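Both lines are retained for reference:
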Amino acid sequence: MYSARALHQIKASYAFLERNFHLCKRYLGWEIVFLVYTIVNTFAFGLIGKMMGGDANENVLYLVIGALMWSFLSALFHEVAHTISWERWEGTLEYTFMAPVHRLTHLIGVCVFAIIYGLVRSILVLIAAVLFFELNLSGANLFGAMLVIAASCFPFIGIGLAAAILPLLSPEKGAQTTQIIQGIILLVSGVYYGVDKLPLWIQPVSYASPATYTLLGVRWALLDGTPTSELMPFIWWLLISGIILIPIGFHIFMCGERYAKKHGKLKRSG
C-alpha cells in the first residue's frame, strides 16, 4: 500500500516537472531571448575584466564566474519563487491548489525542474564564455566546483519557497517584491566584487547569504585549484543552511496557501 502511494507521489512530481518543460517549449522564443541576454551580459562583464590590470585571464574568469553563478542561482530562485506567477499566467492556479496532490509533491516537481533548468542554462553560458574568451581552466578543480554548486541548490530552494507566497498573496505586487529579494542577495553576496569592498556596516549581512559561500567556493576551486577537502566547509555550510531553510520555506508557503484559500485569493488574476 505504502509503495503504491509513494509511486503515485513520484509520478505526480514528475508530471509537474514535465509540465514545466512543456511550458519552456511553448515559450521557447522568450527562453532564447533570456539565454542570449545572459550570455551577452556575461561577455560584457568578462570584457570589463580585460580592462583591469594584472592577470587578464584571472580577472576575466573572476567576473565570468560571478556572472555564471548568479545566472544559475537567480534562475533557481526565480523558477521556484515564480511558480505561482506561472500558474496564474496559465490560469491553472485554482486547479493546481485544489487537486488531490500533496503540496510537497507539487513543489518537489517544481524544484527539480528549477535545478535542471538552471544547470542547463548555466552550462550553455559557460561553454559560450570559454569559447569567447579562450579561458584556461587547466588548473581548476572542476569536481570541487560542481560539489559546491550542487550544495548551493538547497538553500536557494528554501529561499525560493518562502518568496513564492508573495505572488500568491498579492497578484499585483508580489512578483515585483521577489525581485527586491533577489537584488538584495545580488548586492551583499560579492557576485562581481569581493565582500570586503562593501561598506563595513553591511558586510556582516553578506555572511548570512548562501550565495556568498557558493561564489567563494567556486572561485577557490576554479581560480586557485583548491582541493575538494578544503572546500568542505563551504559545502557543509550550504547543506546545513539548506536543511534549515527548506522546511522553513515550505512552512511559510503552506501558511500562505491556507491564508490565500481562506481569503479567496486563488481566483484573482491581477
